[in-house]
C-alpha cells in the first residue's frame, strides 16, 4: 500500500507510569516492527503542550530528558524512529497559527477535555492570578489546534492514540478537510487513528480515575523505574473489594478488573485466560503473581533507564538528531502551506 507516516506525541511528565506504557509507549515500540520498512515513524516530546499548565522550568527540563530516556528504554529505536522535541521545531507554532485562523471557536468550545478542565480550573482574572496555581489560559483552550498542527505539519497518515484523544483527532481531521477545501488542493492527508490494544489503566487507589501522573498519591501508579520492592508494596496496597476469589466484573468489581486488565496487558494474553488461571486464588495470591509479572516486565526497562540516566550526552544527541530530521520534513510542508495562504 501507500507509504504511511505514523506520528504520536507524549507530554514530558518525567518517567512515565504503566498507563502510559500500556496505552502508548509499548504500542509505539511494536509499530516499529509491524509497520512497513519504508513507513516513517515520528514520536514527539510535546513540551509546548506541557506549558498549558503551570510548570517549574528546571523540573520541565529534567522531565523532558527523563521522558526521552523512557522512550529509549521502552525500545523506541532512534535508528528506526524520529524522536524529537516539539518546541525545537518552530514550524509547529507557525502552523498552529495558520490553523487557528480557520478553526471556528465553536469547534474548540465543544471539546470535552476543555469543558471538564475549564470547569475545574479557577478563572484567571488579573495578573496576580497568573502564578503557580492552575487556571484556564488561552493555550489550554487552543491546544487541540496545536495538536492538529503537530500532525498535519508532517502530513501524518496514522496516529496511535488513546481513547481520550479520539475527539481531538476528529477535530484534526475536520481542520484538514477545511484547509483542503479552502485551497482546493489535497494538501493534507486525512489522518486515521491507531487505537492502542490495551484498555485504560485505572488508579490503583481509586478505580474510578485513570492512572495519572497528576494524582498526588504515589501509591496510585507504578512507574517504569519502580524497584521490585516498590512494585510489591504498591500492588499489595492496591484497593480491592471484600468479594471472594478472582472474577472479571468491571461494574461490580472495578478494582480487581483493573488489576486483571494490567496483568493481561503486560503478559499480552486474553483476560479470560487470566481469570481461568487464577479462579482458585484469593486477591492476595493474585496480587503476588501480578507483582512478579510486573517485576519481570519492568526490570529490563528500569535497568536501561538507569544506564541512560548516566549517559545524558547520548540522550541529548538523540534529540538533536531527531530535531534535525523532523525540521527538514516540517519546514518543507510549512513552506507549502505558507505559499498556499499567500504568505
Ligand atoms: P494525554 O493528556 O493525551 O492523556 P499524556 O501525556 O498524559 O497525554 O499521556 C500520554 C499517552 O499515554 C496518551 O496516549 C494517553 O492516552 C496514554 N495514557 C495516559 N494515561 C493512561 C492510562 N491511565 N491508561 C492508558 N493510557 C494512558
Ligand atoms: Na494524561
SS class:
mainly alpha
The CATH topology label of the largest domain is Rossmann fold
Largest sheet: 3 strands, parallel
Oligomer: single chain
Keywords: Aminoacyl-tRNA synthetase, ATP-binding, Ligase, Nucleotide-binding, Protein biosynthesis
Catalytic activity: tRNA(Trp) + L-tryptophan + ATP = L-tryptophyl-tRNA(Trp) + AMP + diphosphate + H(+)
Organism: Diversispora epigaea
Main location: mitochondrion
Word description of this protein:
The chain is mainly alpha-helical and 343 residues long. It folds into 2 domains: 225 residues, Rossmann fold (3-Layer(aba) Sandwich), CATH 3.40.50.620; 90 residues, Tyrosyl-Transfer RNA Synthetase, CATH 1.10.240. It is built from 13 helices and 5 strands. The protein has a 3-stranded parallel sheet with strand order 1-2-3. A two-stranded parallel sheet has the order 4-5. Helix 1 links the parallel strand 1 and strand 2. Helix 4 packs across helix 7 and helix 4 packs parallel to helix 13. Adenosine-5'-diphosphate (ADP) binds next to helix 1.
Secondary structure blueprint with pairings:
Layout: E1 5-10, H1 18-34, E2 40-45, H2 47-50, H3 57-73, E3 82-85, H4 91-100, H5 105-109, H6 112-120, H7 138-152, E4 158-161, H8 166-182, E5 192-195, H9 228-236, H10 254-267, H11 271-277, H12 283-309, H13 312-341
Parallel strand pairs: 1-2, 2-3, 4-5
Helix pairs in contact: 3-12, 4-7, 4-13, 7-8, 9-12, 10-11, 10-12
This protein binds adenosine-5'-diphosphate and sodium ion (NA).
Adenosine-5'-diphosphate binds at residues 10-11, 13, 19-20, 22-24, 161-162, 164-165, 200-201, 210-212.
Amino acid at each position: 500500500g501507500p507509504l504511511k507516516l505514523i506520528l504520536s506525541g507524549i507530554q514530558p511528565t518525567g518517567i512515565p507510569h504503566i498507563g502510559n506504557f500500556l496505552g502508548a509507549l509499548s504500542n509505539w515500540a511494536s509499530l516499529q516492527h509491524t509497520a512497513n520498512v519504508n513507513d516513517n515513524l515520528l514520536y514527539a516530546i510535546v513540551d509546548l503542550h506541557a506549558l498549558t499548565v503551570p510548570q517549574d522550568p528546571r523540573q520541565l527540563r529534567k522531565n523532558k530528558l527523563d521522558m526521552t530516556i523512557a522512550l529509549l528504554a521502552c525500545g523506541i529505536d532512534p535508528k528506526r524512529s524520529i524522536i524529537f522535541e516539539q518546541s525545537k521545531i518552530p514550524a509547529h507554532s507557525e502552523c498552529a497559527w495558520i490553523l487557528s485562523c480557520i478553526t471556528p471557536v465553536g469547534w474548540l468550545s465543544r471539546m470535552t477535555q476543555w469543558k471538564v478542565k475549564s470547569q475545574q480550573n479557577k478563572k484567571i482574572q488579573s495578573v496576580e492570578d497568573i502564578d503557580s496555581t492552575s487556571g484556564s489560559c488561552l493555550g489550554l483552550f487552543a491546544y487541540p489546534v496545536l495538536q492538529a498542527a503537530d500532525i498535519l505539519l508532517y502530513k501524518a497518515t496514522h496516529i496511535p492514540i488513546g481513547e481520550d484523544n479520539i475527539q481531538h483527532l476528529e477535530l484534526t481531521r475536520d481542520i484538514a478537510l477545511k484547509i483542503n477545501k479552502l485551497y482546493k488542493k489535497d494538501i493534507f492527508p486525512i489522518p486515521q487513528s491507531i487505537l492502542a490494544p490495551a484498555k485504560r489503566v485505572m488508579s490503583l487507589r481509586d478505580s474510578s480515575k485513570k492512572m495519572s501522573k497528576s494524582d498526588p498519591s504515589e501509591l496510585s501508579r507504578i512507574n517504569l523505574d519502580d524497584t521490585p520492592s516498590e512494585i510489591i508494596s504498591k500492588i499489595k496496597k492496591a484497593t480491592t473489594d471484600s468479594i471472594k476469589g478472582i472474577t472479571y466484573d468491571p461494574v461490580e468489581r472495578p478494582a480487581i478488573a483493573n488489576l486483571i486488565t494490567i496483568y493481561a496487558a503486560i503478559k499480552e494474553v486474553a483476560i479470560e485466560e487470566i481469570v481461568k488461571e487464577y479462579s482458585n486464588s484469593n486477591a492476595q495470591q493474585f496480587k503476588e503473581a501480578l507483582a512478579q509479572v510486573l517485576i519481570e516486565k519492568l526490570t529490563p526497562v528500569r535497568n536501561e533507564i538507569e544506564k541512560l540516566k548516566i549517559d545524558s550526552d547520548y540522550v541529548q544527541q538523540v534529540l538533536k538528531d531527531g530535531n534535525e530530521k523532523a525540521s527538514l520534513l516540517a519546514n518543507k510542508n510549512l513552506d507549502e502551506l505558507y505559499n498556499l495562504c499567500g504568505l
